[in-house]
Design goal:
With about 180 residues, this protein is an alpha+beta fold. The protein has four helices and ten strands. The chain has helices at about 30-40, 110-120, 140-155, 165-175; strands at about 5, 25-30, 40-50, 55-60, 75-80, 85-90, 95-105, 120-125, 130-135, 160-165. The strands form two sheets. Strands 2-3-4-5-6 form a five-stranded mixed barrel. It has a four-stranded antiparallel beta sheet with strand order 8-9-7-10, covered by helices on one side. It is globular, with a radius of gyration of 16 Å.
């Protein structure tokens, strides 16, 4: 059993001086149930520095961590025993939402890709190809995307989990609260 899941960074960002942004890994410990399913005790996400010490911006889409989305700000701490940075607490949302899907039907990947492109979403796919982490940007109207995803769920093509919904996306759905 692996002790970590490490997401691949898929987006680069310029620091303004034409040097690529320097990214770091932060360990997000997984709850026991998730850790069992993921076969890992932690997911390591790429983060970039902010102007506040020990606060970082998430730079990729989580596969397993709940309550955190692309570009959210989180506080980290140094774990000297583990010799790594570890998630401490959520600070602020970016307006992005994170949705995960599991492909349940053969050959549905192209249909999912076409739909996500139409909604201007980006995504990452796990090494096996069945788990997709989807970024829903702040400017995307989430309600019609959710309807399209739920339609695919009802056809048993995919499974879905809304792992971190931004307040604006929750508001579009008329749901109380926030997923962050």
């Amino acid at each position: 059993m692996s002790s970590e899941i490490s997401s691949m960074v898929s987006v680069g960002k310029s620091t303004g001086d034409d040097k690529p942004e320097r990214l770091y890994k932060v360990a997000f410990d997984l709850p026991e149930e998730t850790a069992h399913w993921a076969c890992a005790s932690a997911e390591r996400l790429w983060v970039g520095k902010t102007s506040v010490k020990m606060e970082v911006q998430v730079r990729n889409i989580p596969f397993y961590v709940k309550g955190v989305a692309f570009e959210d700000i989180v506080r980290v701490r140094v774990d000297h025993d583990r010799r790594e940075l570890v998630f401490k607490e959520f600070v602020s949302e970016s307006g992005h939402s994170a949705v995960r899907i599991i492909i349940k039907s053969d050959g549905v990947e192209r249909e999912v890709e076409t739909m996500l492109r139409a909604f201007d979403c980006s995504w990452e796919i796990d090494a096996i190809g069945s788990l997709w982490a989807i970024d829903v940007p702040p400017n995307v109207d989430y309600a019609p995307l959710r309807i399209a995803l739920l339609s695919m769920v009802s056809e048993e093509k995919i499974g879905i989990e809304e792992s971190a919904l931004a307040r604006a996306h929750v508001g579009e759905l008329g749901l109380p609260g926030s997923g962050h």
